Automatic annotation (TrEMBL):
Oligomeric and partner information: Component of the lipopolysaccharide transport and assembly complex.
Species name: Altererythrobacter arenosus
Residue stretches making up the Organic solvent tolerance-like N-terminal domain: 70-211
Name of protein: LPS-assembly protein LptD
Chief site of localization: membrane
PANTHER family: LPS-ASSEMBLY PROTEIN, LPS-ASSEMBLY PROTEIN LPTD
Presence of keyword Membrane: yes
Length: 763
């Protein structure tokens, strides 16, 4: 122990001033080795002989320990039969150790006293610091004074005194506990922002559990809340108990007080039960079950209440009271190195439950499963999808259920004409309760050959063939005509060939290294019977930098871009110390004038496409900027303008996101114009305090979307708050305002107080 920490240790019952950890008693036989050095060779020999005890025969099942011994000086008193080791005394036994200024062993009383800067370390890395500790001759701790314990999993315990009982438990009196650091970054002492004081603390080494008697929470030195029945574990594992309540005030529910009880049923299972009380509506309960099995893990979360529900914009409850709730379950299981199962279930009783009770703001809930087999040469997926819409006015009967969705791919091990061949088979069945039903199956093969020329060009040749079979009925229930396809059975064939050439150039520029890579791609395909089959998975078509050089710029399988086209562009990158700049721009030219499957406004409907690009700028971890754009080929009007920027560090930063789609596409819901602004800022001050705010704003006006009634600036949600956060404590107050009202999820203000203590499982 350093001299600097000595004053802290002497008053450790009042302050938590040193990093240390809680020990386990060292049991077993004692066999000390000879000292490293001694002041007198003869005395040392006598003392060493005296230090070697006559050990009793080991008890059956008990392991005898060998203790290695080191000290600067060693002395033996023949009359009192006392051995004294002084100066840098070290006792080691396997992965346990004791360090002290002096160790005194009374052979008659069979007691060992370690005094002066004592440090006791157990096999788990827990440590004890004290001025003196009494040990038995079997190396079990007894009485201690002015001690400090630091738990291996974090947290420190200081006490005025402690002793070990006959049952192995350690009882501390006048104790204090905290998970806060007691030194700042420069090594200076600091007071913990919170601590738990207790009259008695009982540590059970068998269960790795610490129980507090007469516990009281102190925050910045002020005694605030009694904590009866408080207990923590020394190994960092969770322990059953109540969580600190949350406090919230909202327009929909009034004052809300919520609390939970956590139950640890086993090392791999736990259960959390929650209750929510409101001043303006009936209570709600929740439960969360988590289970880690030998092949995977899953969790099930549920909410339930019995309250009135508003299903439209009239403001009138649809009934006096309805059972309402939400179920969310997910998991993943790995049956073998190849086979796995992933699943998720999300179901709500009605469309406004999640928003009203502030559980989620999603406008759709997706349930799915996916059984996969993956090896080095093949991939198999058997999946299913079901979606529940939460959008008011959207008919659930028009939302599809996809079951099954089967996809199989195999890559041939042997090259074919020098290239790689991948085979694919896919089938899909889509059903709607009040809409068009579709079944699809196809099989195909793709061949890729990649070569590097002597001049440095990267040339890729691709060939693809595919045969499709579709069956469709009730096509008249699909409002958009180009999505329907022909009713009944339809077949089509797809053939495609492509050549792609990249030519990278590397050199020095602007004090760094630049890479300039022009790229040229030619894709050709005969006419494809696209409009004869339905479009279920390829509706959101839009020219972007991400699909500029794709073989098929539609996002799914139901539509395939036919004809011949030439795509050209370049990538440019610059690397210099601290900086990285990357830019992409390109355009395509179609040799086919018939572009009926590509709506006007997507940037692809004419022979010459729009210009698309992306620019990324990085400066260390301080500036991150990404900008995506699409410019009209005729007048360079901005058809897509999107950027995301972050400036600042972890504590103080500003984030801005902006998106504007100016495509002028009418009649297609998937391709409507939108304009949105997102912003967030956080400003740190006074070391641990911060102010933060965020907002989402709809900038779409009537000219962009006639269905909108806004004037081009409509706040969706704003948030403002203040928070305190140090290494072990976090609390704050948040104000949020919602500007849209959906059923019983009313617009208005919500205030929330949050509070969290490290290591106590408090939110």
């Amino acid at each position: 122990m350093s001299p600097k920490s000595q004053p802290c240790l002497q008053a450790c019952h009042g302050r938590l001033c040193r990093s240390a950890a809680l020990p386990l008693a060292i049991a077993g036989g004692l066999a000390l080795a000879a000292p490293v050095s001694a002041q007198d060779a003869v005395d040392s020999a006598v003392a060493a002989e005296a230090l070697t005890p006559e050990l009793p025969a080991p008890v059956a099942g008990e392991t005898q320990r060998t203790i290695d011994f080191e000290a600067d000086e060693l002395a033996y008193d023949n009359e009192s039969d006392v051995v004294t080791a002084s100066g840098n005394v070290v006792l080691r036994s396997e992965d346990r150790s004791v360090r002290a200024d002096q160790v005194r062993w009374d052979r008659q009383a069979k007691t060992i006293w370690a005094t002066g800067n004592v440090r006791f370390v157990d096999e788990r890395g827990n440590q004890l610091y004290t001025e003196s500790v009494e040990l038995s001759d079997t190396f079990e701790a007894g009485a201690m004074d002015d001690l400090l314990l630091a738990l291996r999993a974090g947290g420190r315990l200081a006490a005025r005194s402690g002793e070990r009982g006959d049952d192995g438990t350690v009882v501390l009196t006048d104790a204090a506990y905290s998970a806060c650091a007691v030194h700042d970054a420069s090594g200076c002492d600091k007071n913990p922002s919170w601590r738990i004081t207790a009259d008695r603390v009982i540590y059970d080494p068998e269960s790795n559990r610490i129980r507090f008697k007469g516990a009281m929470l102190e925050l910045f030195g002020a005694r605030l809340i009694p904590l009866p029945g408080l207990a923590v574990r020394t190994d960092g594992r969770a322990i059953s108990g109540f969580l600190v309540p949350d406090l919230r005030v909202s327009e929909s529910n009034g004052l809300e007080v919520s609390g939970s009880y956590y139950t640890r049923l086993d090392d791999n299972r736990d259960l959390t039960l929650g209750a929510y009380l409101y001043s303006q509506t009936k209570p709600m309960v929740s439960a969360q079950w988590r289970h880690l099995t030998s092949i995977g893990a899953y969790q099930i979360t549920g909410y339930a209440t019995h309250s009135s529900r508003i299903s439209d914009f009239t403001g009138v409850p649809s009934s006096e009271a309805d059972p309402r709730g939400y179920l969310f379950a997910n998991g993943r299981f790995q049956f073998s190195p190849e086979w796995s199962l992933t699943s998720s279930i999300r179901v709500a009783s009605d469309r406004t439950f999640l928003r009203r009770y502030d559980i989620s703001r999603d406008d759709r809930l997706r349930s799915t499963f996916n059984l996969e087999r993956i090896d080095e040469q093949s991939y198999l997926s058997v999946a299913g999808w079901a979606t529940q819409t939460l959008r008011l006015g959207a008919p659930q009967g028009q939302v599809p259920v996809a079951l099954p969705v089967i996809d199989y791919r195999r890559r041939l091990e042997d090259p074919v004409v020098g290239g790689t061949v991948e085979l694919q088979a896919n089938t899909l069945a889509i059903a709607r309760t009040n809409g068009q039903d579709t079944q699809r199956a196809f099989a195909g093969a793709r061949w890729d050959l990649r070569r590097l020329t002597g001049l440095g060009q990267v040339v890729t040749l691709t060939g693809l063939v595919r045969g499709d079979v579709y069956h469709t009925d009730e096509t008249g229930l699909t409002a958009t005509e180009i999505y329907r396809g022909n009713p009944g059975w339809e077949t089509r064939g797809i053939a495609l060939g492509a050549i792609d050439v990249e030519w990278p150039f590397v050199g020095e520029a602007f004090g760094g290294t630049q890479i300039f890579k022009p790229r040229l791609q030619l894709v050709a395909s005969p006419d494809i019977r696209n409009l004869s089959v339905p479009n279920e998975d390829a509706r959101a078509i839009d020219l972007e930098d991400s699909n500029l050089f794709a073989l098929n710029r539609f996002p799914g399988y139901d539509r395939v871009e036919d004809g011949a086209r030439l795509t050209y562009g370049f990538d440019w990158e610059l690397y210099r110390p601290g900086w990285r700049i990357k830019s992409t721009i390109g355009q395509s030219y179609s040799f086919d004038a018939n572009r009926a499957i590509l709506p006007d406004g997507t940037g692809l409907s004419e022979r010459v496409s729009d210009f698309v690009g992306r620019t990324e700028v990085r400066f260390r971890d301080f500036v991150k900027l990404t900008h995506r754009f699409r410019l009209d080929k005729d007048n360079l009007a901005v058809r897509r303008n999107e950027f995301d920027a972050t400036v600042g560090n972890r504590r103080t930063y500003a984030e801005v996101g902006y998106l504007r789609l100016n495509r002028d596409i009418t009649g297609l819901e998937d391709l409507q114009d939108r304009e949105e602004l997102r912003a967030a800022v956080r400003v740190a001050f006074a070391r641990y305090w911060s102010l933060f705010g965020a907002g989402v704003f709809n900038l779409t006006d009537r000219d962009e979307d006639p269905s909108f009634s806004s004037d081009g600036f409509e706040p969706i949600r704003t948030r403002l708050g203040i928070a305190y956060q140090d290494d072990c404590l976090e609390f704050g107050l948040t104000w949020r305002r919602d500007y849209s009202e959906q059923g019983d999820a009313r617009k208005g203000d919500t205030f929330q107080l949050f509070f969290s203590l490290r290591n106590l499982g408090l939110r």
